């Protein structure tokens, strides 16, 4: 029972739990045992549920769109200023953008909302991460976005690289390609390993996030790779992930300047 509720983010609608095979009897027994608690009409929660989800349940609402995508661990470039929530009713909910949703929300429903609500690159980050994290396949995405009105979604799916390793890599690749540059993802350099991106066949781009690179092991590995790239004659820019996500214009400027230097160097 706890697993069924946890699948929805530790707060779930009764009708969704029943649709997944739970019974009214099992819900009652779990509630009496203290495994779950009823928090609003038709809503149950685990004891350690997020207070935000509990508050939304009081409004007969649930997280959705980018707000739910972030909770699911998908790549979200920037948290929306207002919560995006799903509700079957129409009245506004303070501090929220309300999506009118009456049935169960699947992952594909949520990804569809991200494509509709966000920019092209925001939609790409969400969809690509769902594939990279093996939450769905490209084939499933294509089936979901097969309608006449899904031209935008199909264009985003065509940009997905299932080998991508981070949101920064995805966003950098998007802006570099949009600027007209040829970009290869996860390019392999013998003796070094994979670099995030190879631009115009001559310039490597590494998008460094703090989680891995600001560690003793990460720092040592970065030094090893940098030294070997120099030895092998491979030009490479190291660009902080925060800059890629927040100021892609600066990243593009650095890349174009580096390409200019490479192209002007004696052969």
From TrEMBL:
It comes from the Bacteria. InterPro entries: AbiEi_N. Gene3D superfamilies: VSR Endonuclease (3.40.960.10). Residues 6-47 form the AbiEi antitoxin N-terminal domain. This is AbiEi antitoxin N-terminal domain-containing protein. It comes from Arthrobacter alpinus.
């Amino acid at each position: 029972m706890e697993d069924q509720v946890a699948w929805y983010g530790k707060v779930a609608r009764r009708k969704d739990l029943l649709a997944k095979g739970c019974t009214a009897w099992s819900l009652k027994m779990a509630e009496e045992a203290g495994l779950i608690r009823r928090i609003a009409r038709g809503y149950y929660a685990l004891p350690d549920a997020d207070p935000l989800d509990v508050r939304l349940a009081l409004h007969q609402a649930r997280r959705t769109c980018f707000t739910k995508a972030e909770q699911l661990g998908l790549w979200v470039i920037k948290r929306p200023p207002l919560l995006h929530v799903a509700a079957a009713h129409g009245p506004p909910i303070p501090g929220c953008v309300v999506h009118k949703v009456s049935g169960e929300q699947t992952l594909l429903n949520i990804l569809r909302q991200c494509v509709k609500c966000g920019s092209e690159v925001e939609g790409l980050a969400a969809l690509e991460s769902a594939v990279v994290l093996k939450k769905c396949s490209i084939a499933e995405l294509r089936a979901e976005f097969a309608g006449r009105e899904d031209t935008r979604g199909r264009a985003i799916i065509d940009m997905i690289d299932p080998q991508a390793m981070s949101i920064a890599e995805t966003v950098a690749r998007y802006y570099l390609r949009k600027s007209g540059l040829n970009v290869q993802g996860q390019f392999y350099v013998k003796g070094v390993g994979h670099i995030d991106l190879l631009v115009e066949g001559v310039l490597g781009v590494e998008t460094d996030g703090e989680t891995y690179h600001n560690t003793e092991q990460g720092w040592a590995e970065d030094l090893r790779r940098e030294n070997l790239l120099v030895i092998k004659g491979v030009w490479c820019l190291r660009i902080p992930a925060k800059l890629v996500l927040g100021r892609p214009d600066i990243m593009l400027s650095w890349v174009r300047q580096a390409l200019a230097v490479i192209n002007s160097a004696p052969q």
